[in-house]
Amino acid sequence: MPSIKINKLVSIESNPSNTILETMEQAGLLPEYNCRDGHCGACRCKLESGDVEYVGFAMAYTQPDEILPCICKAKSEISLKWCELRDERKTRINATSQYKKPKAIALAFYYLFLLSTFTI
Ligand code: FES
Fold first, then answer.
1. Mutation test of ligand 1: which of 70, 73, 80, 84 has the most ligand atoms closer than 8 Å to its C-beta?
2. Contact 4, 24 (CB under 8 A)
3. What are residue 64's phi and psi, to 5 degrees?
4. Relative to the CA of 41, which ligand 1 atom is closest?
5. Domain ranges within the chain, ordered by starting residue
6. Can you say whether the dihedral through the CA atoms of 18, 19, 22, 28 is positive or negative?
7. Which of 53, 57, 56 is nearest to 76 (CA)?
8. CATH architecture, domain defined by 3-118
9. Interval 65-103: pLDDT, tens
10. What is the C-alpha separation between 25 and 1, in angstroms, rounded?
11. HSE-CB for 81 with a 13 A CA cutoff
12. For residue 22, how far is its CA from the centre of ligand 1 (angstroms)?
């Protein structure tokens, strides 16, 4: 199965029976979309490399190097950029990592405090 590289961040395996948008969703990503039928252009991405096959009729305006993942399937390994992702997992991961550092520092001070009280 060809892989789909998205925004140079994530690489997922394409599913030949699904559109690129559906494949992204099955991989746990939250791509931007609205109509899911090639009309609105909300899912528009820039195709950096590779070939896609349209399985629907594109009504939304696209530049020559842009595709509509809601009506495209990957024909080869493809690389997409400027894909709008509503990646709540990423937001959660970032939020979690922001709180991990202060927690780790607090734990380090706590252990130092414990060590100093037991060694005196
Ligand atoms: S979601 Fe509307 S064109 Fe793809």
1. 70
2. yes
3. -60, -30
4. 3
5. 3-118
6. positive
7. 53
8. Roll (3.10)
9. 999 999 999 999 999 999 988 856 554 544 444 455 667
10. 17
11. 4
12. 12
Q: Which atom of ligand 1 is nearest to the CA of 39?
A: 3
Q: Look up the pTM and report it.
A: 0.72
Question: Using an 8 Å Cβ cutoff, are 89 and 55 in contact?
Answer: no
Distance from chain centroid for Cα 62: 21
* Nearest atom (ligand 1) to Cα of 21: 4
Structure token digits, residue 55: 């399985």
pLDDT over 80 at 19, yes or no: yes
Do 37 and 71 contact (CB within 8 A), yes or no? yes
Residues with CB under 6 A from ligand 1: 33-36, 38-43, 60, 68, 70
> 67 C-alpha to center of ligand 1: Å?
10
